[in-house]
């Protein structure tokens, strides 16, 4: 577990994490981005309210408004950079998990003598 924590600390200081933290801070301080995020959240709450009244027309109207807000948000370069940094971190974590899984699988198969034992049940 100590080695796992050490690995987590190393990942936490990686370039990918630094880029993510930088982009996250910029997102938090970007007035237009925060305004758009707030507007989207507000409209999502409105949808829930109109769904409870079974007002399909208003739900569809608000969904279109959300799509427009989301498109505007997605076209802000800073948001694209933030999303890319999230993707990079996810890729890094998946890569680390794959390497650990594959390495452990190789060691377990070698120690068992190659083929895994059958586990079909009792009394064989």
Automatic annotation (TrEMBL):
<keyword id="KW-0175">Coiled coil</keyword>
<dbReference type="InterPro" id="IPR016783">
    <property type="entry name" value="Biofilm_formation_YmcA"/>
</dbReference>
<dbReference type="InterPro" id="IPR023378">
    <property type="entry name" value="YheA/YmcA-like_dom_sf"/>
</dbReference>
<dbReference type="Pfam" id="PF06133">
    <property type="entry name" value="Com_YlbF"/>
</dbReference>
<feature type="coiled-coil region">
    <location>
        <begin position="52"/>
        <end position="79"/>
    </location>
</feature>
<protein>
    <recommendedName>
        <fullName>Cell fate regulator YmcA, YheA/YmcA/DUF963 family (Controls sporulation, competence, biofilm development)</fullName>
    </recommendedName>
</protein>
<dbReference type="InterPro" id="IPR010368">
    <property type="entry name" value="Com_YlbF"/>
</dbReference>
<dbReference type="InterPro" id="IPR052767">
    <property type="entry name" value="Bact_com_dev_regulator"/>
</dbReference>
């Amino acid at each position: 577990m100590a080695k796992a924590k050490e690995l987590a600390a190393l990942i936490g200081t990686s370039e990918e994490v630094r880029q993510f933290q930088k982009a996250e801070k910029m997102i938090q301080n970007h007035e237009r981005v925060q305004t758009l995020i707030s507007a989207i959240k507000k409209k999502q709450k409105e949808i829930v309210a109109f769904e409870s009244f079974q007002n399909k027309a208003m739900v569809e109207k608000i969904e279109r408004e959300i799509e427009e807000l989301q498109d505007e948000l997605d076209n802000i370069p800073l948001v694209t950079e933030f999303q890319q940094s999230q993707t990079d971190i996810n890729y890094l974590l998946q890569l680390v998990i794959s390497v650990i899984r594959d390495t452990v699988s190789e060691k377990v198969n070698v120690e068992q003598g190659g083929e895994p034992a059958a586990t079909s049940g009792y009394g064989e």
